[in-house]
Amino acid sequence: MSVTVALIQLDCTSAEPVYKRVTRAMGLVAKAAAKAQFVVLPELWHVGAFDIDAAREHAQEINGPLVTDLGALAKQHGIWLHGGSFCEEADGLYFNTSILFSPEGDLRATYRKIHLFGFEGGETTLMSGGEELVVVDTPLGATGMATCYDLRFPELFRALTEGGATAFVVTSGWPTLRIEQWDVLTQARAIENQAWLLACNEVGAQPDIALGGHSCVIDPKGAVVARGGSSEEIIYVDVDPEVPNAWRVQFPALGDIRLR
Fold first, then answer.
1. What is d(CA 9, CA 41) in angstroms, rounded to the nearest whole number?
2. Is 113 one of the annotated active-site residues of the chain?
3. CATH class of domain segment(s) 3-254
4. Which of the following is catalytic: 12, 87, 113, 202?
């Protein structure tokens, strides 16, 4: 049975106070929950993916108010909620941590971003990279979690596939400057792994970097089922979790892998 997914392509312009954006995002989740069973937010949406100073200022522990409130929101609306990612503080370290909640409000999975962006700048100046791959059972099927810059590393997605994933959820803050590469990479990761790929990006500017939008849902054959524009919007798509396995039987390319 198909699952209706909502990608919230949130405007994360730095000029908006964090508390206002959190309140506004919570309202958009409630709006999306009226149509969708699975809702996704972008990367570091509460502070903006490129605003490292704000990430440091608003870092929280995993049991902090942001995660607690998102869990309550998932329970209130009875939805699966991928809460994007936030700056997690743990034992004196910081991580770019994605969070996934069940309809009961339970924190079902966390993923600490493995590939940090910045080339000795940006998030690499604050955060530590994660080390663990995450595949979790959801209504989409076995779902691998990834974040933004991870898209450039196909070995991560192949490892998720070998771990059983038939769908990927990517939370992101990808800039307009490289949005054509985003469009290609999202399709490539879906095609080569014969899996659904749901990618939720930001729009807006933080502080002087424009975020590119183009949030998308790609099917296991690489077809673009939906793609957002460059402004704030909610993208709704029906996802059939049976499609990847059917396509893998019909076109069993994964069985021909020789290099690992």
1. 7
2. yes
3. alpha beta
4. 113
